[in-house]
Each structure stands twice: as C-alpha cells, then as structure tokens.
Prior knowledge:
The chain has 324 residues and is mainly alpha-helical. The chain is built from 13 helices and no strands. Helix content is 77%, strand content 0%. α3 packs antiparallel against α5. About 12% of the residues have low confidence.
Amino acid sequence: MSATAALVRLDVRGITRDQVMLINVLLSVATMLTITALGAFQASLPGWVDWFPFMIALALVSGPGGFGYLFGLLMVDENDTGVREALGVTPISPARLILTRTMIATLWMSLWPLFTVAVMNSTWQALDIPPAQWLVLVLSLAVLTPVCALAIPVFAKDKVEALAVFKGITFVTLAPLVMYFIDADAWYRSVFLLIPTAWSIEAFDAFVAGKPIGYAWTAGGALYGLALLAVVVQVYRRKVYRLERGGRSGATRWRTFAGGTVLGCAVVSGLSALGVPLLQLSVGQSLAIAGGLIVAAKLLGLLAIALLGRDLVTRLRARFSRRR
Length: 324
C-alpha cells in the first residue's frame, strides 16, 4: 500500500470513529437535503426563490471552514493519540503528510459543492450557471479548505481549543454574507474583500447575473487563497514539525521579486500603450494585472517549496536544466 493510500485510509477511519467528525459530515448532508426539500414546496413559499442564491452562497462559503475543521481535527487528534509520533518513525516525510492532507482537502471541497449544488438546484431550477463557471468558482474556493485545516492544529492543542478556533474561522468566513443586506454602492462594502470568501461571493453573484467579470473574481480569490496557503503551510511546518524553510536571504528574495515585478509591469504597460488587443487598459490596471501575475507565480513557487520540500524542488530544477 502506498503512503498516500495509507494516509487516506487512516483519515477515513478517524472520521468514522469520531462522533464529532461524523456529526459534522451529517450536518452538511442535512443542510443539502433541507434546501432540496424546500425547493419541492416552493409553490407554497412565495418569494423564497429569490433567496435561493443566498442559500447556495451560504452553503458554498461554509464549506471550507466546516470541512477544514474536519481535517484539522484529525491532525489535532493525531497529537492527542500519539499517531503523529508514530508517523515520525515511518518513511513518510512531513512534506508528504502536508501535501497529502492538502490535496485530499482540496479535492473533497472541489467535488462536494458540485454535487450538492446539482442536487439542491434539481428542485428549485433557479440557477442557470454554465458548468465551466461552477468549476472555476468551486476550485478557487476549495483552496481555502486546507488553509482552515492547517490553521486549526497551529492554533489548537486539543479538541476543545480546536472547536474555539473553528468558531472563529466560521464567523470570519460567513461574515461576507452581510453583503447581501447592504447597498451595492456602500463604501464599506469593499472592506469585506479582506476576507477571502468575499471574493467567491462576488464571483458567484457575477455568474448569476451573467457577467464574465466573475472569472476575474475567481482568479483574485484563488490568488488570495494560495497566498494564505503558502503562509499557513510555513507556520504549520515550523510549529508542528519544527522545520525551517532555509534558502536564500530575505533581502535577496525580495530584490529578485521586486525586479521581476518592475519588469513585468513595464512589459504589460508597454503592450497596453501600444494598443495590443485585449490589453487596452490603463496604466494602473496594467500594473495591477502584471503585479498579480508575478505574485501568483511567486506564491506558486513558495507553495511548491513548502509542500514538496526545498531539496526536491532543487533536484527538479537541476534535472530540467540538464535536459535543456
């Protein structure tokens, strides 16, 4: 049995034997069935169809925190039961553990919402969003699941503390739902964009309205999620496994990053000034797009190092250089 398969089997066993975790899964199923049942009686519930997008948004943004708590509690339980110490003497490296948990949490949150939304909309028939838009929306939101999962063992030492952290995460991730009750032109509406789930809500509303700008919102949300994931992975490695990242000095990294940012901004701004199709943007928009792309590339690199380990990434770079 491979290391990944063994970890998946261990997690499934942990979820099924722990009543708190099992209840968390059953609550998600109960929410889906309740909203689906309400749709069957929508003829007797005038006006409720207008609130169906809000119910879907609630179900979507509550997923990362809820299932993140599920996977995070598994990691907290490993510390209480001594499983983490037992895994420490196996050939499975901490990087493999983090990567496997991250991929499992992301994959689960990528599939579960697609299934639940299809079931709930089967009775309401109130949303006509193309599958491609659903996919990019769910993928951008799924990145937040491992963020929440890894944050719980970072801040919690036992299940009681984990529950308190989960409540805090839930409060933060659900807070952007307030945007449905405030004016679209309110100046303080943009404050909610400090919360990553707000980007998903903006993307969802844009897709419901048939506006392609939803793709931009999903890209921004995915970038935000990757940034948080890169940070939380590093904190998790240092606090739980006492691992340091190492590598080049901070000054060298930031000089490289700043130089690449300036170069990218100059290229995109130049293309915009020349009137290249699809890039006829203002200088400010060009700078924002170029900076975002470079930040995304930098974050993906940091995330690869954090998840796979710097040694493995260095070997892959060396092999690629030899082939070239």
